[in-house]
Amino acid sequence: MKAVILAAGEGSRMRPLTFTRPKVMLPIAGKPILEHLLMEVSAAGIKEFVLVVGYRDEQVRSYFADGAKWGVKISYCQQTRQLGTAHALKQLENQLEGNFLVMNGDILAESADISALAAGSETTLSVLEVSDPSSLGVLETDGDRVRCIHEKSANPPANLANAGLYLFTPRIFKAISDTPLSPRGEYEITSSIQLLIDNGTEVGYRRLVYWQDVSYPWDLLDVNASMLKNLAPCVYGTVEENVVIKGTVEIGEGSLVRSGAYIEGPVLIGKNCDIGPNCYIRPSTSIGDNCRVGASVEIKNSIIMDNTKIPHLNYVGDSVIGQNCNLGAGTKLANLRFDGADIIAGGVNTRRRKLGAVLGDGVETGINVSLNPGVLIGSGSRIGPGAVVSGLVEPNSYIG
């Protein structure tokens, strides 16, 4: 059996992080979202993959190559125009024989659920119950059969949501050929499935035990914290005297933790990092490769991507910081509104009481910069000394 992973889109709701990478390549607990998914599918016994790529596809291709590193075989399909999931599968009709799995590349699932789905013999959707299904497809069911799919309805008739993980038989391709353009301007696989149902094909569903969707940058923080709970403690780098390590901490090869650093796990530190002296790294923090965390720096519940420097007198709380960023001395990323209300980011109510900043790649700040809760800063932007920043900053901006 082959698994098709849909990884062609940008993921616009993840901006500013996706200005420079596809959503599936965003890191959680030190690995891209797509790698976590691929490993779970492989653990379910499926070793052949087709990755449908498009937006900034070179990053996916160069990272995963032919899959040998993971003991799997990977081929690629280029979706130059992202015209929907059914459009993507139509291009693969001659490459797929027998039953096959299809899944969105930006979800997280577990091997047990994937294995159970793959063992089926008919078209089957994976589902889960959610409290607010308005942003997802919703299923109406009759016993163990799907009767109708409502795609992103303002008033969903049920709370059984489509999880974006499917088992298909070859019959799906005839339905795809007959699928019309949706009101959203795409050829959607849920429309194809509805055609199967309307033409008398029985379509089943299976409830998932575990599923995570990451729609917005702040969702990365929750999933990162959850995954770090399973971290295994190991130190491949060098730890000087007078370093305090509590809880589960992984320190990558070539990294140096200098005297006076205080690290409370779970914390993941990548390769070739320079940490300390006299810094405080708090739980649920992931730090990428080649990063610098210097003196009098405090980081809490954050994701710091590769090649980023946080070197002097900085506070970073509940934030996501892209690659190749540099925070000037005294830059502070506030994570709590003065009135204690929910934090708004990019016009979206995050439903979070605590959220710092989201910085795209290559952002630089001068000394004593203050970033207010929920600020989104586009890649390549520069924030001048002493600036106080709120709201949304477009890529390649300068704020003096």
Automatic annotation (TrEMBL):
Enzyme class of the recorded protein, top EC level: transferase
Pathway(s) annotated for this protein in UniProt: Nucleotide-sugar biosynthesis; UDP-N-acetyl-alpha-D-glucosamine biosynthesis; UDP-N-acetyl-alpha-D-glucosamine from N-acetyl-alpha-D-glucosamine 1-phosphate: step 1/1; Nucleotide-sugar biosynthesis; UDP-N-acetyl-alpha-D-glucosamine biosynthesis; N-acetyl-alpha-D-glucosamine 1-phosphate from alpha-D-glucosamine 6-phosphate (route II): step 2/2
EC number: 2.7.7.24
Annotated CDD domains: LbH_G1P_TT_C_like, NTP_transferase
Any one Pfam family match given in the protein's UniProt record, by short name: GMPPB_C
Record field: catalytic activity: alpha-D-glucosamine 1-phosphate + acetyl-CoA = N-acetyl-alpha-D-glucosamine 1-phosphate + CoA + H(+); N-acetyl-alpha-D-glucosamine 1-phosphate + UTP + H(+) = UDP-N-acetyl-alpha-D-glucosamine + diphosphate
Protein name in UniProt: Glucose-1-phosphate thymidylyltransferase
